[in-house]
Each structure stands twice: as C-alpha cells, then as structure tokens.
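Design job #97: recover the sequence.
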C-alpha cells in the first residue's frame, strides 16, 4: 500500500469521526420550549467614547508658537502627552512651513522624528521655494507613548560645493498655524487608588484641570472646608496648567470624572445603595451610567470624617491603594513657617539651582548653538528690595571650549533684560594632558559671583543663560579652493550647585495690592498652608459661590505648591471680625462694612457703585501721590450686563491684616466671569491696585483710596524709603544736612580759633 493511499484512509477515518461527533452534539443540544425563559448572555460593553483633540503649535512650541530652523540651529521640537485613560486611534500632523528661496530643491529636506524615530520626510521641491506650504503627515498611533517628542530637522543646502553651513540663506519657518490632530478613545480603568491622582488628574494632560465636585445638597461649612482643602491639593498638582472645580448638587457631570462628598446621613441619590462606612473612607468606583468615568468617593460618618479623609489624602497619598482605603488618623505636627512655600525661593538661606529645577536635565543644553538654559524664580511679593544693592548669585557652569578665542560668551538675562556676560575662553592645548575625573565636581568648573539688580525683580521671574558660540565655518574663497568643516555640537551645563541668596531682606509692602493676590495669593499665602486665613462664605451658598471658593483655593495651591490644610471657614461675620487673620470674602459684604470710605467698589443685583480716582493708572505704574489715589467721583449705574469685581482693603479691626472680596452681580454669568478671570493667567495679570472690574470685555483695574503697609521696617529705613519716592524732600533734606554740617564745621573752627588766640595771649 502506497503512502498516498494510507493518507487517504486516515483522512476518511477522521472525517467520519468528525461527522459522528457533530451528530451526537446535535442530539444532545437542548431544545427551547415555548413559555420558558432562555438564559441571556452578558450585554456587550458600550462603544468606548471618542474625542478629538487639536494641539496647536501656539501652545506646544516655545513662544511665540512658531519656529525657525536655520544653518546653526537646524532642529526644533514640540512635546505632548497622552492621558493614561486614553489611547490614540488616529494622529495627523498638519504642517505650515515656508522654505528659503535660496535652498536647492531635492537636496534640501525636512525630517520629522517622533520619539527619535524617523516618521516622515518632506522633500523641498522647486515650486515650494519661498512660498507658504501646507501639508499633512499621518502618524502611526502605535508609536505614540504617554509622553511624546516631535522633532524637526532641516537638511538645507544652497550650493553643490563649498557650502558654509552658517550661511543666512539656509532657513525654514514652521508657522504657528501648524498643529497635531488626535482622535483619542477612552480606556476602561481598574478601580485602583495606587495610581492616584490618576485619572482625576493626569500630569501628561497639558489642558487646565477641570474636576467637578458633587454634594448631596447645599454643603455646610465643614463640607465646604473639606472640599476647599482637596481643591488646593489638586491645584498644587496642576501647577501651571490652571484648574477649575464646577460644583453640582445631587447629580453627576456628563463624560467627566468627579469627586463626590457623602456622609452616612446625607448622600446623593445615585449612592443610596452604598453601605454605610465606619471610618473616614476614600473609594474609587465607576459612575452608574458609564464604566469609563470614575468617581472619587469621600465618605464618612459625619462631616468631621470627611475632613479627616481629605487631610489624609493630602498628607498620605502614597499610602492609598486598592479600590478602597480608610484613614485611621491624621495628625498635623509642627506648623509651617512664614514664606516657606515649596514653589517660592527660600528667603532664610541660599537657594541652590537644584531646588529650582522643574524637570530632569533642565540645566543642560547642546547643539551647534545650544538653546538657552532657564530657571523660574518665584518670590514673595512683600520682599523689600528697594535699598538692595543687588542679589548675590554664585554661578558655576561647564562648556565645551571654543577652538580659539573668538568672542564666544555666556550672557545672563533676567526677565528678558541683559544683566552680564562672561567670555568662554579656549583651552590651552599645548602638549599632552591626562584626563582626570574629579570626585568633587566643581573644582574644574567656572565659578563667578554675579549681582542681580534688585529693582528688576518681580513676583515671577525668568533667569536665562545664553551660551553664544562664535562658530567659524569655511567655504569657497577667491583662489578657487574649497575648504569645508563639519559643524561640531557644543555641550553646556549650568551646575545645579549654583546658588542665589535672598536671605536677610525684610518683608514690607504697600497695600492693597491685587497684583500680589492674583499672582502669588498674598497675603494669604504668607503661610503656605493658609494658617492665618479665614474665608467668609454666605450662609446659604449656591453652586457658583462654592465653585468660586474652590477655584480660589485651587489657585492658592498652584501658587504655593502646598495644600491649604489649616485654612478656616465661617459664615458668621460676628465670629470672623474677632479673629486676627487675613480675610477672604466670597459673595457677601457685611452691612457694617458697606461704606464708601472703606470699600472702593460694591456690586449687588441691580446697581454698581464705582469710585473713580483722580488719575487712572496702568498695571505697570506705581502711583506714589496720595492726590492721585483720592476719589474724584462716585458713580452709580444700573445695567443688565454681567459684572464681577475683586476688591482689596485694610481690615477695619487689625492694622496688619487685609481683606480681599470676590463679588458678582448675582447672575450666573457674573460668577462665571469671575471664575474665568481667576483661571486665566492673562486676566489675573491685569489685576492690580485696589479694585479689578471684570466684564465681558476683560479686566480693568483701579487704585483708589488710602494705602497702608504690611510688614515691618525700622524707622530709619522707612524714612529713607519715603524720601526716595519724593525727590524734592530728599533734596531739601540733603541741603539741610549740608547747611547743618557747614554750620557745625564753622562753629568748630571758631572754637579752635578762639583757643589758639587765647594761648597766644597767654
């Protein structure tokens, strides 16, 4: 029997066995009988929601949102992140660029990298030279990670031979109209607090944080305080992104994660079936109508448990794990000291650059022309630097030495103002040298002491170091020779042991100053945990007023980098005015404070009163004349348009305390304008003086009424400060001192002369 026949017999046997098995299976299959209910399988999961995201270069690229690739700086990059609860299903890069008309077609290209992998190549064609071109480049979503870097590299040529890589005709502009279009799909997440604060806040998401907070009904003062502490903690995590906390009563938001506060006796309707708790509890569950949206449940037997749960989250987030965690106890130990906010430069000792860095390798750069190295300096607004000669800074840096002494230098800039420069000398290459790696880095560094002009410092400052290399490239010459040099990249490092010293300066500031409040949360942020701050709330706040409270606390956390663990809240004015604290009023002005002399602007439901100063000021001006701040007129205007105000004034009960009031005209749109202004950095930057009026057109600031001072200065420094802003009186005092000195000298000479004459007579 041949092998072929054997295979056929085996195949026939297997086929017969399979047929018999199928017949037996059909006989054993149960038959549905009418009137009996068939067993249903689990319904399929609903389709995962999708969202489209358009990332513009205006926000992704360095200011102003466009980039120029040239011969010495041929690369540029943008960065974007993807949330942990989303996955990219489609990505499209929209490029608007204009190549130099001097580039050689085909030989010149634009290379596009995603996370250092080449994903696209754009060849410059003759019809593109000098023209604005728009193109689209599809990106494979599989190559997109949590954090992504898109890098553009120009390969530019203007001649076939004898090129100078630094020729100014080699350039390509990428316009700010460019962007990345993403389609993202929601992912079902496991209820696991070990990844907290994800998914409620994700560091990869560059958008402002929007986190709704839900209450069973109108929250009492303890629930408001618990929510305020949690909002400030989320604000400290959101940092520069901004944050908003919409408030809902007894309902969940649509397609958003949310935080829900509930006690055993007061719960929203969608949590009625949840078992009661016996301890402060934090739990993560899916929303009833969507498995893709999560709820962070803050649960307790009573309001005190809610406060304990929030404090435990703010202090012990690293201990959260599983789908549910209970907080056994929270003890706030030693209180924080004044001006020790994590986001501020230390004022009690020198601050090293390592303490100021925000991400890894921030103090390094490389390239033919390295990009600038920058640091952010956040200072307390009341730091008194008027008489300061300069701020000491010890600067250590390393760099690849130029080939020869060619004028390469390091330029130091503060707030885009040039401060000082230092040459970058070449090394002595004579003879042979052994490479020695020191155990203590810094012995071979370049060390310099630098004085920063104190008057150029503000609340938020940018310190920038530009390493400018004078690169020499050789091309063709008049003799017909062709000499070319391959550009070599440079490496520069500002050592993180460099330091800056703001210690020894006093704290003294003229108030009211809404700029200090808007940009740094001052005076409340004097203590990072808001230990000496009291918030006065209306007795029955609506959702807009509670949201304003949470937004204000979120801003405080973002500005200080620390949650407001010790902030106090009350709705009783009689209690508030007895406490020696700084006061934040939301939505209400007590009747005994509603006088025109004390408050420059008031808002109610139907009318607006405004005191206009003699001379209108801009945010950059600092009026010193009391006459300029005197109210010239009082105006009352009735209008149907929305209006909100932020006003600041001195506490009527304590001279060193301040009051900031957040008010709106009673309409939802008025409160919305106020919340939008607090979450918008540009609008906050427009706030100054004693009153900020917020309308649909924007923010207008006024400075009117009497000023007062917070802090302490010795009398001689206070006198010198007062004379420094009044040149006439300073000159008059100088003249008086000169005359007095002359009289004393004349009197002394007369006495000496008389004694000499008496001696001669004797």
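Job complete. Output follows.
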């Amino acid at each position: 029997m041949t092998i072929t026949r054997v295979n056929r017999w085996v195949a026939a046997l297997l086929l017969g066995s399979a047929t018999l098995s199928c017949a037996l299976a059909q006989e054993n299959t149960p038959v549905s009988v009418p009137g009996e209910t068939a067993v249903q399988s689990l319904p399929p999961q609903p389709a995962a929601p999708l969202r489209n995201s358009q990332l513009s270069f205006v926000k992704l690229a360095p200011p102003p949102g466009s980039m120029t690739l040239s011969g010495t700086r041929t690369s540029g990059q943008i960065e974007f992140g993807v949330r942990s609860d989303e996955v990219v299903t489609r990505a499209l890069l929209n490029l608007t660029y204009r190549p130099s008309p001097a580039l050689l077609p085909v030989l010149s290209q634009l290379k596009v990298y995603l996370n250092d992998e080449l994903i696209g190549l754009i060849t410059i064609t003759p019809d593109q030279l000098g023209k604005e071109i728009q193109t689209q480049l599809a990106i494979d979503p599989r190559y997109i990670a949590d954090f992504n870097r898109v890098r553009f590299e120009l390969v530019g040529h203007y001649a076939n031979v004898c090129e100078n890589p630094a020729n100014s005709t080699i350039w390509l502009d990428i316009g700010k109209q460019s962007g990345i279009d993403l389609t993202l799909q929601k992912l079902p997440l496991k209820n696991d607090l070990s990844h907290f604060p994800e998914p409620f806040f994700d560091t990869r998401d560059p958008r402002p944080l929007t986190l709704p907070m839900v209450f069973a009904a109108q929250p009492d003062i303890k629930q408001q305080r618990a929510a305020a502490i949690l909002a400030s903690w989320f604000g400290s995590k959101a940092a520069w992104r901004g944050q908003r906390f919409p408030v809902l009563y007894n309902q969940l938001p649509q397609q958003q994660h949310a935080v829900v506060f509930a006690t055993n006796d007061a719960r929203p309707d969608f949590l009625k079936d949840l078992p009661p708790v016996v301890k402060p509890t934090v739990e993560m569950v899916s929303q009833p109508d969507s498995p893709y949206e999560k709820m962070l449940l803050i649960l307790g037997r009573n309001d005190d448990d809610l406060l304990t749960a929030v404090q435990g989250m703010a202090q012990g987030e690293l201990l959260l794990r599983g789908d549910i965690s209970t907080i056994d106890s929270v003890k706030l130990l030693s209180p924080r000291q004044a001006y020790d906010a994590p986001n501020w430069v230390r004022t009690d000792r020198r601050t090293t650059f390592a303490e100021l860095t925000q991400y890894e390798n921030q103090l390094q750069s490389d390239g033919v022309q390295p990009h600038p190295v920058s640091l952010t300096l956040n200072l307390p607004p009341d730091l008194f630097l008027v008489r300061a000669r300069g701020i000491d800074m010890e600067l250590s840096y390393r760099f690849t030495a130029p080939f020869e002494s060619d004028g390469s230098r390091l330029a130091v800039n503060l707030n885009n103002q040039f401060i000082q420069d230092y040459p970058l000398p070449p090394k002595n290459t004579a003879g042979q040298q052994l490479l020695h790696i020191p155990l203590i880095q810094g012995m071979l560094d370049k060390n310099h002491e630098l004085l920063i002009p104190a008057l150029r410092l503000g609340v938020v400052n940018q310190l920038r170091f530009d390493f400018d290399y004078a690169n020499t490239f050789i091309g063709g010459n008049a003799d017909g020779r062709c000499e070319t040099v391959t550009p070599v990249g440079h490496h520069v490092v500002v050592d993180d042991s460099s330091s800056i010293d703001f210690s020894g300066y006093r704290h003294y500031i003229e108030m009211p100053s809404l700029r200090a409040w808007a940009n740094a949360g001052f005076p409340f942020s004097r203590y990072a945990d808001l230990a000496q701050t009291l918030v006065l709330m209306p007795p029955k706040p609506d959702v807009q007023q509670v949201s304003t409270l949470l937004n204000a606390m979120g801003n405080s956390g973002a500005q200080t980098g620390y949650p407001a663990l010790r902030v106090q809240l009350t709705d009783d004015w009689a209690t508030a005015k007895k406490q020696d604290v700084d006061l934040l009023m939301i939505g209400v002005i007590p009747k005994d404070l509603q006088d025109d002399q004390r408050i420059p602007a008031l808002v109610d439901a139907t009318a607006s009163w405004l005191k206009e100063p003699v001379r209108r000021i801009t945010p950059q001006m600092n009026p010193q004349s009391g006459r300029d701040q005197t109210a010239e007129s009082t105006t009352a205007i009735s209008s149907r348009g929305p209006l909100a105000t932020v006003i600041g004034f001195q506490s009527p009960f304590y001279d060193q305390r301040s009051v900031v009031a957040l008010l709106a005209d009673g309409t939802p749109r008025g409160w919305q304008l106020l919340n939008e202004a607090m979450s918008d950095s540009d609008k906050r930057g427009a706030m100054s003086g004693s009153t900020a009026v917020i309308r649909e057109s924007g923010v207008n600031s006024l400075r009117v009424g009497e000023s007062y001072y917070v802090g302490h200065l010795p009398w001689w420094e206070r006198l010198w400060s007062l004379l420094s802003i009044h040149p006439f009186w300073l000159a008059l005092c100088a003249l008086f001192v000169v005359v007095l000195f002359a009289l004393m000298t004349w009197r002394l000479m007369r006495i000496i002369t008389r004694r000499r004459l008496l001696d001669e007579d004797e």
